Amino acid sequence: MTEEYPTLRVSLDRGVANVVIDNPPVNVLDVQLMTDVLKFLKKVRQDSSVRVIVFSSADPEFFIPHVDMTLIDEPTAFDELALEAPEGLNVFQAFGEAVRHQPQVTIVKLAGIARGGGAEFVTAADMTFASKEKARLAQVEVLMGITPGGGATQYLGQRLGRNRALEILLGGDPVDAETAERYGWINRALPADELDAFVDRLARNIAALPDGVIGAAKAAVPAVDLDGGFTCEHQAWAGLFALPAAEKLIRGGLERGAHTREGELRLEDLLRDLWEELKGQPNG
Amino acid sequence: MTEEYPTLRVSLDRGVANVVIDNPPVNVLDVQLMTDVLKFLKKVRQDSSVRVIVFSSADPEFFIPHVDMTLIDEPTAFDELALEAPEGLNVFQAFGEAVRHQPQVTIVKLAGIARGGGAEFVTAADMTFASKEKARLAQVEVLMGITPGGGATQYLGQRLGRNRALEILLGGDPVDAETAERYGWINRALPADELDAFVDRLARNIAALPDGVIGAAKAAVPAVDLDGGFTCEHQAWAGLFALPAAEKLIRGGLERGAHTREGELRLEDLLRDLWEELKGQPNG
Amino acid sequence: MTEEYPTLRVSLDRGVANVVIDNPPVNVLDVQLMTDVLKFLKKVRQDSSVRVIVFSSADPEFFIPHVDMTLIDEPTAFDELALEAPEGLNVFQAFGEAVRHQPQVTIVKLAGIARGGGAEFVTAADMTFASKEKARLAQVEVLMGITPGGGATQYLGQRLGRNRALEILLGGDPVDAETAERYGWINRALPADELDAFVDRLARNIAALPDGVIGAAKAAVPAVDLDGGFTCEHQAWAGLFALPAAEKLIRGGLERGAHTREGELRLEDLLRDLWEELKGQPNG
């Protein structure tokens, strides 16, 4: 299947589709990766031989670090994806909602950094299991002068409680897997060397259930309707994205090393330092 | 009071009713146990001398392992209970809702295994405190080819968040008390040797409160209305229960040792092994 | 600014207002403290130079132990504050809601005891970080013969789940910071010697965000509307406050040492002992 999806490695084993995200250098959520994931989800939607989808990363350090920041200079890059977005959802929200409403059971196996749109992907999945030693989750958008625009405000507000959602959304700091577990963001934090075996066993067990069981369970615990909130989220995001601060932070961030391994490993500091400098300038 | 309730040992001390479930060999939730619990709840409903009800088990290994699986061969056994179920609720949902809407404070002291309908009972109670060493909670229904039909999908969906609810409902694995606490399923996990003293003190303190306080607190934090969800849950459950897989798993499970101590202690493996064999058969 | 607020010490540094509650001997939430906090919140509401408000206590043992119990003998003391309460809210609910709806980010740094109306204040703030060693949270109202009347039933019912909310509301016992974190009541429990640095860094980082980001995030995750529940809470509280038990417990509690340091450090025992005696009296 892999030739179909330039950024994914897909394999199917006894009802479990293992989808490994492989979009070097750091798995940025760009148009190609979004296109590939959506294409895959759509293709298997009606395929009863696929019962569980496990997403993981080919990169030991990064799951998805955030949405492609070059969007700032190519605002039309996502236009094709936007054509397929359901009424009332922007292209990033539509991406999360496609994951959240997939009929199969979706599981994220998280062993690296997931930030911004990558963290939204994680949260949209049905379940997430994360490495205690290596996983990090963050909504880093505020450090780019914006708020999340792909579902995080609604997903986290609903799942974490407003107190913790605001801390994550406004603090911008990464949390480790044990904190994410305590906050209810993910299902569980597991020792790195147990993560594969735990997720594999769970996925296989679920895939082996009698016909109809997965659908019945997902129907009995439907995804909460968040439509009103998405409009509010989009307005907040779009309003900020149009301001000079966001432009300077995103373009400046790219110049300073975002999208490179070194830059991404210290992205929070990189953006905070940049903002300190920008604020000090006459027209900052 | 005990003669009234063949499966319960009831004692009252300073406003606290201690209800010990004693339905050998393993405390299966059968017609008699359901009848006794409902009869007890109804009897004390208007009794202002009973303020707190603490449920525990006479069996050190089992609280309630699940609903009586012989239901598969005696579908009319629950007919009498069904006559008393409120409009829109099946007999198992009506059981949970009777617990959840009891005017007294209901507390489960959990020191053994509670699965399926037994776990639904636990979740329906106002509070649960569980032994770190001995308590286990599971929704094991999927291993019988069905989804829960007595409230678990709604209770867990509402209390745990969809990510953890789906893990519990579809994974079918038991979780220990510390995991159940982290997931918000129960109030607290406590060391086994502190459980009795903790619950006794709390129950006694609540029972000693001035008149009207318990009712005021419960009125100010009403049980969430889940009626729409119960219909959805029932349809999912009933649709699967009518399929051959459920019949084979439940009847086959009984033949392999369910309802016996040995079988119940390894029920998950017993059912998974059975399903592997059934799937391997020509008409499996 | 301090002369304006007899019970507060206010300082502003780079967008962070540090508000230290200083109302000796034990920081009781009396008319003056409520008035000062409301006056401060109103004053800075439109002040864009204030972005984050951090509340802490000048008293190492007490944040706010509860509402002024002498209210029992001065029922008109709060009349002036009541005039400013929004339609449908009593004066204590209006206080919590003023905190909860403040446009700035509100953070409580908790290193002592917060009970009753003090705990409601904590819960109404956007975020709370608490000392593992020193913080304690409790809704102690039931030990005074009443249920909370300033938002706790609604805030906790919504945030903690009904099982844990009822435990806190009816048990009346203090919980430590780690339990409060596990219950989702607060954001995090931190070692006492890390608390200041953690909160200061977070507050400063949030205050340094580009214009509009805080408002956008708070708009995208709005405070849940709890208006129906406030009416229910008020009725429960007011009904109990009018009964002889509450009067005896509150007045008797004051006679036994409430509002003094020694009495407040053992308030739960003091009130339980008093109630045991009152119940033993002919007209108790």
Describe this protein's structure.
3 copies of one chain form a homotrimer. Chain A has 284 residues and is α/β, with parallel strands linked by helices. Chain A has a single domain, classed as 2-enoyl-CoA Hydratase, Chain A, domain 1 (Alpha-Beta Complex). In chain A, 48% of the residues lie in helices and 15% in strands. Chain A has helices at 31-44, 79-84, 91-100, 116-124, 152-160, 162-171, 177-182, 192-207, 213-220, 227-241, 244-256, 261-265, 267-280, and strands at 8-13, 16-21, 52-57, 62-64, 105-110, 113-115, 127-131, 136-138, 175-176, 188-190. In chain A, strands 1-2-3-5-7-10 form a 6-stranded mixed β-sheet, with helices on both faces. In chain A, strands 4-6-8-9 form a 4-stranded mixed β-sheet. In chain A, helix 5 packs across helix 6 (162-171). The longest helix of chain A is centred in the C-terminal third of the chain and has 16 residues, at 192-207. Chain A is globular, with a radius of gyration of 18 Å. Chain A starts with 7 loop residues before the first strand and ends with a helix. The mean pLDDT of chain A is 96. Chains in contact: A-B, A-C, B-C. Chains A and B meet through helix 8 and helix 9 of A and helix 5, helix 6, helix 10, helix 11 and helix 13 of B. Chains A, B, C: It comes from Streptomyces luomodiensis. Chains A, B, C: This is Enoyl-CoA hydratase/isomerase family protein. Chains A, B, C: InterPro entries: ClpP/crotonase-like_dom_sf, Enoyl-CoA_hydra/iso.
